[in-house]
Amino acid sequence: MASISLLNPKAEFARAAQALAINISAAKGLQDVMRTNLGPKGTMKMLVSGAGDIKITKDGNVLLHEMQIQHPTASMIARASTAQDDSTGDGTTSTVLLIGELLKQADIFLTEGLHPRIVTEGFEKARSKALEVLDAVKIPIEINKKNLIGIANTSLRTKVHPALADVLTEVCVDAILAIRKDDKPVDLHMVELMEMQHKTATDTSLIRGIVMDHGTRHPDMPKRLENAYVLTCNVSLEYEKSEVNSGFFYKTAEEREKFVRAEREFIDQRVQKIIALKRKLCDGTEKTLVVINQKGIDPMSLDALAKEGIMALRRAKRRNMERLALACGGTAMNSFDDLEESHLGYAGVVYEHVLGENKYTFVEECKNPQSVTILIKGPNKHTIVQIKDAIRDGLRAINNALVDKCVIPGAGAFEVRVYNELNKYKDTVKGKVRLGIQAFAEALLVIPKNLAINSGYDAQDTIVKLTEEDRLNPEPIGLDLSTGEPMKPVDMHVYDNYLVKKQILNSCSVIASNLLLVDEVMRAGMTSLKG
Amino acid sequence: MSSTREIVTLQFGNYANYIGAHWWNIQESSFSYNPEDAPSEISHDVLYREGVNLNRQVTYTPRLLLVDLDGSLKHLPREGELYGNSIKRTNESIESTDDVKKIKEELQNLSADVEVVEQPHASKHDFQKDLEDPVIDIQEKNYNLADNVDTWTDYLYARYHPRTVNIVNDYKHSTEKQTFDTYACGVQLWQTEQFEDEFCDKIRQYVEECDFLQGFQTLFDCFNGYSGLATACMEYLNDEYGKANFAIPVYSPRNTPFENADEPMSDSIRVVNSALAFHKLSEQASLFVPLSTSDRVWRQLGAARQLRSLTYQPDNLYQTSAVLAAYLDTISLRYRLRNAPSAYSLAGFCGDLNNYGRKLAGAAFALPFPMQHKQDLIDCLDQFEGPIFTSLTPNCNIGTDYVIQTLCVRGITRDRLKQPLEKAKEQMRMAAYKCDSVSEMFQLYLQCANHASMSHVASVSMAMPTRIPFPSEMFAEEMTKLGFLSPTTKRQPEEKVVSVPTLAAAQSSSELGDTLETLHREAKRVKIAKLHRYKAAGLEEDDYVDALEQLLLFKDNYEDNFEL
């Protein structure tokens, strides 16, 4: 009897072998759900809620979030996978598969009486060896479009269907290259994602400028301007009712009116400053002025601006102020005193696009845009959401490559190489610990195996071919999913992120070891601790 | 150029959504689609917006954002029903429906296999099924909503914009235990991407559409994690927009225990949440009026408030939320009137009451306003004995002296004011006979009833509609169809009350000092160090002590030794 039951008779518990069985079955269960989604040939899942909400995805992280996981062990694995996504943006499905497989392989030895501690020691040794191999196979890359496309495409093909993946790859790589400055770290926030429920998914495109989800709010305002100065500002152009406007405080209506007029004039002066600037810079030339304000602009001010042919947008996103300055140049103004030409940005064309009740404003043809927008299109909401998730991961994958300055051959090549290396390595280790190393080696094969299964090839067949080929070749060998034959990933430009693999190796072995070492699972309601 | 003074409404929490659902229902049942009717006295554009969906149909939806937990929507798709983007579900398997077949086909053309995973179909309440059927008149049927409503979507007549519904996936909705427990959790939730980015962006989109934004009204559950979420949101609104912010913290009449907590601990958590929220509200809100149908809420719930000619089950969410929604609908009239003078704004409403930092106000309500069906207002007020309304603010009594209050009267037309000169008889002798409008007469009445007080009265002649899905079964038999009292005759059971006159007030009086004092006393007794979940979610003990001290200072604003 477990000691907890002395303290709390209602507690449920499971011990030793039973506890292990619980953890392993949970890990296997999760693995079974996710395995079909691995790799570019994995299937998509269409999730339909009780109310009819749709979600289509093959991204491991999204799936885990959508599944309502009750099992404590499963939720622990899911959390490891989410952490993987948070730090790298890729490799979530692999994490789940690998943890499951590590437990499965360990189980074989455990049922034969091996102590879990020895297995975990083996895991630990195997992990450090695997990391060595990882460093050995990494390929330093030059940052150019071709290399980045390889890595982005490998990642994106695991998230969306191939035709779309190719479109998104191009878009993501161009976006990153556009905002990248020398060797400074890239701020992914400078790529704005804007969605439009319109046309088809493959119409998703990169806009070298900014797209905003709002438009002009005055019927007479120009809807399209060319050769435009862009004034970005954070100055209120609306008459704000001041705090003391209660009915109790004014003796007469006139007194109140007077107060209101004074306030109004104050705002008018600001509007006049913009108009004066416009007259000074644009009158007599081809140039025009666009005002993009983070604060509000009331109808009276809009009216005055419209009369001058100025296009004005209100309530811009805070982050867009920063992006606009990067895309068009100029600085975001906090007051209109001493406005000068140098404060303004420039855009070749600014125009409005109306879609149902939504308006979009495009700021394009900027001179040297250091902030760009990916315009996501799709016929329905679930497609847009899917693309958005994919693009986020694609951008992260490219960014990872920029940070690592190297990549790892993909298509299961790394796993096969580690398998072979570990098999060699285990013979140099004395004692039962080598069994743990063997389990680790076997477990890694789950990745190429499932890649093969999902593409319709025989798992054993593939593994035998790959391991043999790998032994004969100095270069890593991966699986060509279209033929089922071994190939050199480098030739096909199939790359994985170094960071992703490293993170997977680290987190999986830690989580699996933790789960193996659990010898008692208990569940007890909290009793009230008074006093 | 329109001069609508828009308001954005925010609802946080399940019970807040119950109230919200009733409120929007009440408003929509007063819509008139007949172009020949005189335009309504209420400007619905203040709270509603016009839009166009993708099929180019015009929509008219509340300018609203609401937050609830996963699992609370039942049949309602997150995007709502007006703009598509969801599949119509029936009892049969989803694989066989045309929508799904089409999606699968499209994807297969792109060489991608799809596996369909479906949750069991969420059944619709009968009321919702009938709403879709144009033949059935919902007013004719008896749905017994009081007993079979599971969640607020069951009786929701109003339809929401796709932007409106925000679901928190990290916590699950359950009627047995609440997982979203502490103020600190709520604050943490606000800092996630879902709120800091997406939710704030949705607010911005609403605000961008507004020409003359008056401000925000925030309705939220004050006893659980939403207290933190909502107050964090209000802080953001003040930073970003600096407009009037009217908060309505609400208390559910059913105390659902928190996860891993027994009853005393759940009670303590509620107290701490309230205290922290009230402290934050005293900084961030322009005005806040706590609402509940129980007379005490800090720890154990007190007795249900008694309203004349009204009976309701004390712990019924559907019925109690209707009472609170009716109050909100009435009190908010002041800033929703068409062609109103500018003091009739949200800022004016809050500004009248919050002098000397008295940002907490009490709610008082009369549902129905007890007037006999052939009586004139002048006689009704003359013969009135006892308090005219019931307090709906927990731990607070109706103030009588030194009161600053704003009232809204609904459903008393000018011809019910007094008799014309030739028939006046006795009425001629009353001072009130010289009053020519409903609000004037109330002003006079309040001047006599309350010593040294200031009152603002707004009046709308249209009574509040109480058609289904409003729980009109709450009204006593002595009420007529139009909601006036008729003690001698009884209403036939098949006859329903279709509208009622109401009177709502928001009061600032020294009584509220007691409200704060009881809260402070309860909160002080809780040992915060024993509630590990606050620390785990990032609240330090010192912060709590500080908050309580501030709360005590806030209470001092209600001492009336040196005022007026």
Question: What features would you describe in this structure?
Answer:
The complex is a heterodimer of chains A (531) and B (564). By secondary structure, chain A is an alpha+beta fold. Helix content of chain A is 50%, strand content 17%. Chain A has 18 helices and 18 strands. In chain A, the strands form six sheets. A six-stranded mixed sheet of chain A has the order 7-12-11-8-9-10, with helices on both faces. In chain A, strands 4-14-17 form a three-stranded antiparallel sheet. Chain A has a three-stranded mixed sheet with strand order 5-13-6. In chain A, helix 6 packs antiparallel against helix 18 (498-516) and helix 13 packs across helix 16 (459-472). Chain B is an alpha/beta fold. Chain B has three domains: 7-89 and 157-335, Tubulin/FtsZ, GTPase domain (Rossmann fold, 3-Layer(aba) Sandwich), CATH 3.40.50.1440; 346-512, no CATH class; 514-556. Chain B has 15 helices and 16 strands. The model of chain B has no long low-confidence stretch (mean pLDDT 86). At the A-B interface, strand 2 and helix 8 of A face helix 2, strand 5, helix 6 and helix 10 of B.
